[in-house]
Amino acid sequence: MTVNGSARLIQQIKEFKPWNEQEQKDREVILSCLDSQPGIFLRTNLTGHMSASAWVVNKDHDKVLMAYHNIYDSWSWLGGHADGETDLLTVALKEVREESGIEHVQPLAEDIFSLEVLTVDGHEKRGEYVPSHLHLNVTYLLEADDTEPLKVKADENSGVAWFGLSEAVKASAEPWFRQRIYGKLNQKLKEKLEIAIAK
User: What local confidence, expressed as pLDDT, does residue 117 receive?
Assistant: First the structure.
């Protein structure tokens, strides 16, 4: 973990333009925690820690890659803990490769796509109890090849699959994610593509 890397991420979050009130208020919480919480990039901070997620679309931008996460018992986006890394785009890319088996994945843009404060209920992991905590999450928009073979990461998920954009939202068993996050990400994707076409 580097001070420069942390400062760079903080600057990126400060420059991020919130799309809605959820992103605006969650950005305030994330910045406050980055300023006040020691070890915020490590999961040893039991109150909360930084994480990275990916909204992974195919080359036609009409499908989203989801994994069936064992802990959450739901289809959901891919991502994971920072574990000391301050370059969260690197974390997101690594997690997608590990969780899906896909090798060819790249950012559609290197800037932050979305911000979220996520609640994680207490659970067992590798035989140990993990107390309830927050994931201070940075999301990136990535693109992958939907013809590549998919591979389950058995210690974390029991399925990996491509879904149509609206089907990806419906596949989630978590109401808050359906209502607040996944539908929003699809709308932001649509707006981003419309802007790109208009240029």
Answer: 97
In the chain, helix, strand, coil percent, each to 5?
Answer: 35, 30, 35
**Above 90 in pLDDT, residue 199?**
no
Distances (CA, A) of 114 to 41, 94, 128, 139, 182: 18, 18, 31, 5, 11
pTM: 0.93
Q: Strand runs (DSSP E) across the chain, as ranges?
A: 48-57, 63-69, 74-76, 78-81, 105-107, 114-120, 123-125, 128-130, 133-144, 157-164
pLDDT of residue 158: 86
Burial class (CB in 10 A: 0-12, 13-18, 19+), 98: middle
DSSP conformation letters of 162-196:
EEEHHHHHHH---HHIIIIIIHHHHHHHHHHHHHH
Which amino acid does the sequence have at 199?
K
Which of the 8 DSSP states describes residue 108? S
Q: For 95-140, how does the pLDDT look when each residue is reduced to its tens digit (9 = 90+)?
A: 999 999 999 999 998 999 999 999 988 888 878 898 899 999 999 9
